[in-house]
């Protein structure tokens, strides 16, 4: 059954920029209350504060927390707060949009650093494994109920490779595997879990990838729409997919790329 999102709650992990921020804005326009977790320096905190006030200006509640979303301590501290803020209604939508990882090569050229075990573990923990830990704790706390939707942001890097992207590619592959396993285990509870595979999207995290300008130009030329994916495209997909109580669309990697991979 198609339902209204107004009055429900959304948790965005990685809420201060890129796709996470666009999703929070889109859902706030739909009347969804926002819980945002981000990990920023002063400039990022100021940007998050502006976004929070813009969302509140739409008549919804918006609460942002500057904390490390990959930390177990953060979950321990924030879950009781989330229970209090949501007033027992639970969280309808969870968005995992954490983009923090190393871009070092596995085998560096002469004079170039190579990936370390610590960097590999950090990248997979933040960008993949934290999805599992948040979902576990939210479910155990009773904040995920029938009709809830969990989304993880992936990319074509889960199956394709490029220079400097090895650890992130491994994290995306692991993330997609976690999505399938969580979908299997949460199906009896009526909770859907999906990965959204955005096309090449101009975000702060993409700009950190060496050669991102060439990557963007190539993707723009290939895309049937002759443009890159925008964070707003992904936000609209989340809004659309969340308008049902059904959990029948689950365990998928859903392309939100304008047909980028078709060509």
UniProtKB/TrEMBL annotation:
CDD domains: SDR_c (cd05233). It holds the Pfam family adh_short_C2. The keyword Oxidoreductase applies. The keyword Nucleotide-binding does not apply. Keywords: Oxidoreductase. Gene3D superfamilies: NAD(P)-binding Rossmann-like Domain. Transmembrane segments: none annotated. It comes from the Bacteria. Belongs to the short-chain dehydrogenases/reductases (SDR) family. This is SDR family oxidoreductase. It comes from Streptomyces endocoffeicus.
């Amino acid at each position: 059954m198609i339902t209204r999102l107004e009055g429900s709650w959304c948790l965005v992990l990685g809420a201060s920029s890129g796709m996470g921020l666009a999703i929070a804005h889109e859902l706030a326009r739909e009347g969804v209350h926002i819980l945002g977790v981000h990990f920023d320096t002063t400039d990022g905190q100021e940007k998050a504060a502006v976004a929070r006030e813009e969302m509140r200006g739409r008549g919804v509640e918006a609460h942002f927390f500057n904390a490390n979303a990959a930390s177990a301590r953060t979950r321990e501290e924030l879950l009781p707060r989330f229970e209090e803020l949501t007033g027992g209604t639970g969280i309808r939508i969870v968005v995992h949009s954490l983009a923090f990882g190393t871009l070092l090569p596995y085998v560096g050229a002469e004079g170039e650093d190579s990936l370390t075990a610590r960097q590999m573990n950090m990248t997979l923990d933040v960008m993949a494994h934290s999805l599992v830990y948040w979902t576990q704790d939210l479910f155990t706390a009773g904040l995920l109920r029938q009709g809830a939707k969990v989304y993880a942001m992936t990319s074509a890097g889960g199956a394709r490779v490029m220079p400097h992207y090895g650890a992130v590619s491994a994290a995306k592959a692991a993330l997609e595997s976690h999505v399938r396993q969580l979908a299997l285990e949460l199906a009896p509870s009526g909770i859907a879990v999906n990965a959204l595979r955005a096309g090449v999207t101009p975000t702060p995290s993409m700009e950190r990838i060496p050669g991102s300008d060439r990557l963007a130009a190539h993707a723009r030329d290939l895309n049937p729409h002759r443009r890159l994916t925008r964070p707003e495209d992904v936000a609209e997909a989340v809004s659309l997919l969340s308008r049902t109580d059904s959990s029948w669309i689950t365990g998928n990697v859903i392309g939100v790329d304008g047909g980028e991979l078709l060509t």
